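dumping this here so i dont lose it again. seq + smiles for flavin mononucleotide
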Amino acid sequence: MTIDPQELRRCFGSFMTGVTIVTSHDATKKPIGFTANSFTSVSLDPPLLLVCIDNKSDNISAYTNGAGFAVNVLAADQHDLSNRFASPIDDRFADIDWSVSAAGHPIFNDTAAYFDCTLDQTVAAGDHTVLIGRIENCSTSGKAGLGYSSGKYFTLTP
Ligand SMILES: Cc1cc2nc3c(=O)[nH]c(=O)nc-3n(C[C@H](O)[C@H](O)[C@H](O)COP(=O)(O)O)c2cc1C
């Protein structure tokens, strides 16, 4: 049986998710980040999460060989940030407010939540790599999250 790749994309896309930006630093200490909706909670004890990164990512080796990463869970009004970190622009961090987490990863202001992770393990999985992070710190702001379904953003707030 063969699967139509376009239909596969549409099927995956029909699963409603939140939107995150996964951040870290490259070997030159430059901040890096990409938009990801493949985020999933994995375990409470020990505290683990996962995100899947495309092997074609410009920064795949920084994530797979680095010490860890942060997952910024975007708030309902942060779709511009999501688009920026999904676009091929030179400096995605220019002119936006961010700070450095306790574990040393870029954290954005006004998100719904963040997770600060050390890299627990990587799992090769087809054209993506699963990054499993061990959560060292996390915090929620109480803000509603940004939703994503079939290529469109949505919010649960009026
Ligand atoms: C809503 C949304 C979710 C995305 N989820 C993922 C994801 O889970 N994994 C991934 O590798 N790319 C994902 N992407 C695509 C990347 O954000 C995009 O290809 C980005 O340019 C990759 O940047 P990089 O090459 O600097 O890593 C997503 C894009 C959008 C808009």
